[in-house]
From TrEMBL:
Membrane-spanning segments: none
Start and end residues of each HD domain: 23-105
Name under which the protein is recorded: Phosphohydrolase
UniProt keyword Nucleus, yes or no: no
Organism: Micromonospora globispora
Length: 188
């Protein structure tokens, strides 16, 4: 495995495995799924996709909490660690984070600090994350969104974010499937 991916895996493991074992199970499964759907992105971008998948939730680590918004906190830490800027920005914006940032009144901060990439890689990262459940199980996207809504409850800002983001997330999964020429792996 290429060094970029190895380094990303090690960084994620260090920050999540012991502190947040459930989150770590999710992250391992998201990285594995990114590997399975990597054909949806250009060859030269595959390592970036898989490295970003390893690191996408690193900002949940108790060591890294700053604003309390995990995407932004993760992106900031990766930049401080001098990880590839593109990976830091993909993590900062992963899975429609800009919409959650608006709910948190951090939209301008996120946009000022990190460019938002609209690409096959960003779509595949969103797709890997949003079709993988909290324990690493495969989920249909809409099932996953329902699971998040019920985990956070109707009044939580994450629930408001998920409702706003649903059309974008559906579109990202559909675009990824059309680039793959097949469905994203789903539960058996
Ligand atoms: Fe995630």
């Amino acid at each position: 495995m290429a060094q970029l991916v190895d380094t990303a895996q090690q960084m994620a493991r260090t920050k999540l495995e012991a502190a947040l074992p459930r989150r770590w199970r999710h992250v391992q499964a998201v990285a594995a799924k990114a590997g399975r759907i990597a054909a949806a992105v250009p060859g030269e971008d595959r390592e970036i996709l898989i490295a970003a998948a390893w690191l996408h939730d690193v900002g949940y680590s108790p060591d890294l909490v700053d604003t309390g918004f995990h995407s932004l906190d993760g992106g900031r830490w990766l930049r401080r660690e001098r990880v590839d800027e593109r990976i830091a920005a993909l993590v900062a914006h992963h899975s429609c984070a800009w919409l959650e940032a608006e709910e948190r009144r951090l939209g301008d901060v996120l946009a000022a600090e990190f460019p938002r990439e609209e690409s096959a890689v960003a779509d595949a990262l969103c797709c890997s994350d949003m079709t993988t459940g909290p324990d690493g199980q495969d989920f249909e996207l809409l099932e996953r969104l329902a699971e998040i809504r019920s985990r956070y409850g109707p009044d939580h800002l994450v629930t408001r974010f998920i409702i706003k983001a649903e059309p974008e997330m559906v579109a990202a999964v559909r675009r990824t499937e059309s680039r793959l020429g097949s469905r994203v792996p789903q539960p058996m």
